TrEMBL record:
Belongs to the glycosyl hydrolase 1 family. Its EC number is 3.2.1.86. It comes from the Bacteria. GO terms for molecular function: 6-phospho-beta-glucosidase activity. Pfam families: Glyco_hydro_1. Keywords: Glycosidase, Hydrolase. PROSITE patterns: GLYCOSYL_HYDROL_F1_2. The keyword Translocase does not apply. The keyword Hydrolase applies. This is 6-phospho-beta-glucosidase. It comes from Breznakia pachnodae. It is an enzyme of class 3 (hydrolase).
Amino acid sequence: MRFPEGFLWGGATAANQCEGAWNVDGKGPSTADIATVGAIDKPRIYMNEIKDDVYYPNHEAVDFYHHYKEDIKLFAQMGYKCYRMSIAWARIFPTGEESEPNEAGLQFYDDVFDELLKYGIEPIVTMNHYETPLYLMDNYNGWSNRKVVDYFEKYTKVILDRYHKKVKYWMTFNEINSAILNPLFSLAMREASLQEVYQASHHQFVASAKAVKYAHDHYPDLQVGMMYGGIFSYPHTCKPEDVMACEKDMDRYLYFPNVMCRGYYDNKAKAFWKKNNINIKMEEHDEEILLAGKVDYIAFSYYMTMCSSAGIEVKMNLVGSSIDGAENPYLKKTDWDLTIDPMGLRYALNMLYDRYQLPMMIVENGLGAVDTVEADGIINDDYRIDYLSKHIKEMRTAINEDGIPLLAYTTWGCIDIIAAGTGEMKKRYGQIYVDRDDAGNGSMKRTPKKSFYWYKDVIASNGENLE
């Protein structure tokens, strides 16, 4: 029961949740920069514009922009083999329309990659993680406009050309299936009909395929994957209607990796279009582009499972999320109502491998919780250790007993960051504590938690020491 040699252990963040410096060194505002803070029972509010008297958590976040050397040194002390991060599109092209990139933004990521490589940490980079230049939303209605494909293609060519010697592993869009849950997050559209969501998603599929093909044609050593927002469902009962409800729920979400991993729309997708009066407008060579731009691997996030029911009205209450499902009576939940289901991770790995036969990465997994700093400065997060340990054990079983080809595992929010759904700091995921609160107060001091030392031992033993 071992992990393979060369397995990539690490952690993950997103630029808009950790970098801060939202208007520094030529960066333009992104869709994430108009989001205010929510609460434990309230999702974030997205403003029409940026106002001086409103608090926007992402504007400063945890200031990775100015602390990256300190933070990466801590990652190295944990023994990281990889670090999953994202590039802020608006830091490279402030509006998206510019003909030339912002050199200061490019240099920042050069510096980050150099710092990671200095410690032998492999960057795994997401090209677009829940933020698009705000200008493209305000002036083009985001991904609903085919022109945004061209702007994204320009951006991806620039970063692939610039960083191909430093970054081997890439992903195009973060949790691309979230388009059907939150068009603003994923598609930079404030509101969208079903037709508009699926048309905009087609534009993202084409944009992703173009990035994959460009990488393959120019830098064949690179690996470019897709990232699935890990929604996995069980039938609520063995009643046939519940089983079929589960099948149809999963069809909705797996529509996205189906296209990106296989390179075409299957008959189920076309039947869905017909049933819902969706007419996907394609340009002449789109189908060829999709087939030529199939991804090399599938990455996914995993926090929970849900249940599907044909008849139950009571749904889970997931703050800051549009995911719905029936309650699972066999599972405990986090303080934010996410079910805790370690075995579900093994189930997820098997499901995805059975469908796509591709190598995989788990690029988000973790426990959001309220951490307490003791009088002596210690943060005893045994609950996080227990959560991660149980999930890693199931991952290990999937590799050894099921033959799953897993390349990497990165815990989400390896350092405390702004929560995407609510904007909170108190919903902490990291192994490194950051002194900052929900109102933006604090020294930004970094402090390793108990889980920091535990995860260091996990990595050093290549997953053997999990207690």
